[in-house]
């Protein structure tokens, strides 16, 4: 089964890599391709977003099925809702603090091997997704196609979740479990760095 996930992960990365050059050459402005490319690159170019989204996949892999699949579905769905709030101008307080806190909290949950009930894990992930989505929505480029932009950042988010799941798959082995928990600790420390303006 892990071989299947590795093949799936590699296939998704290759598909994304094959898609990017054609999008980069496409017309920008209000075009679908320009909006998609802007949205796709936005989460990947922000390390605070990358850490939190990888952490969601990593925690899901640590918790095992069905959390491994549910959490990476909950996050983008709620994030899209947060993006709508940002696009239409609904204020969400302390967005940057919430984004940094997401890395801190998710990292600590992994480091301390927290295993809450699935519904609580989903609420935690969903709450942080609102901050990430709002940040994406408020930073929507004026020239971008908003729907294509949203599709782009949701797909990029899903790929980052898959990266976390991929790193978390060895968790069933003792050494893998230690490595995953150590990764959670590192994510949390970097999150503190973002919170304090050090990273």
From TrEMBL:
InterPro entries: HupE_UreJ
Signal peptide: 1-26
Keywords on record: Membrane, Signal, Transmembrane, Transmembrane helix
Membrane-spanning residues: 42-62, 69-88, 94-113, 118-135, 147-171, 178-198
Keyword Signal found: yes
Statement: the UniProt record of this protein carries the keyword Oxidoreductase: no
Pfam families linked: HupE_UreJ (PF04955)
Protein known as: HupE/UreJ family protein
């Amino acid at each position: 089964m892990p071989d299947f996930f590795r093949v799936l992960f590699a296939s998704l990365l290759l598909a994304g890599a094959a898609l990017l050059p054609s999008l980069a050459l496409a017309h920008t402005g209000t075009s679908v391709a320009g909006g998609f490319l802007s949205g796709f690159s936005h989460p990947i170019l922000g390390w605070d977003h990358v850490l939190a989204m990888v952490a969601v996949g990593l925690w899901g892999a640590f918790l095992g099925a069905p959390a491994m699949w549910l959490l990476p579905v909950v996050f983008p769905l709620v994030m899209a809702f947060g993006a709508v709030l940002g696009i239409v101008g609904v204020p969400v307080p302390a967005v940057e603090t919430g984004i940094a806190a997401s890395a801190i909290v998710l990292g600590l949950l992994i480091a301390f091997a927290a295993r809450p009930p699935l519904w609580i894990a989903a609420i935690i992930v969903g709450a942080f997704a609102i901050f990430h989505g709002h940040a994406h929505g408020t930073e929507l480029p004026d020239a971008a196609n908003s729907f294509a932009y949203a599709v782009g950042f949701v797909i990029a988010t899903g790929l980052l979740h898959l990266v976390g799941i991929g790193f978390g798959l060895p968790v069933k082995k003792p050494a893998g479990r230690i490595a995953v928990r150590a990764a959670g600790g590192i994510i949390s420390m970097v999150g503190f760095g973002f919170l304090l303006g050090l990273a």
